[in-house]
Amino acid sequence: VQLVESGGGLVQAGGSLRVSCTVSEDTFSRYALGWFRQAPGKERELVAGISTGSTTYYTDSVLGRFTISRDNAKNTVYLRMNSLKPEDTAVYYCAAVFRIGRVVLRESEYDYWGQGTQVTVSS
After folding, report:
1. Is 12 exposed, middle or buried (0-12, 13-18, 19+ CB in 10 A)?
2. Which of 22, 30, 43, 64 sits most deeply, having the most CB atoms within 10 A of its CB?
């Protein structure tokens, strides 16, 4: 299973960005998915997760600003980021695990990871 992210870049504070992650797996619809991020000097954290049934979870700091979604026909998960802040600057990683029915919150449960894409928000 391979995960390939795209869509990172540089944006001004208050702006928007969408990152995408395409998964090379025929049974994509049976995978729970997550977006994590890691800022310099900090631990990697879960930003948002989505279940096979499209139930979602968001960490408090992004609630109301970020939206995770999935398109099973395209084997792709998205993270739409609005009202970006400098503290959102990080490398963003998508992750996947074969898990039906619930959002997966723990990093250790994810089996597959993308290479990461840099998101930089300037003040």
Report:
1. exposed
2. 22
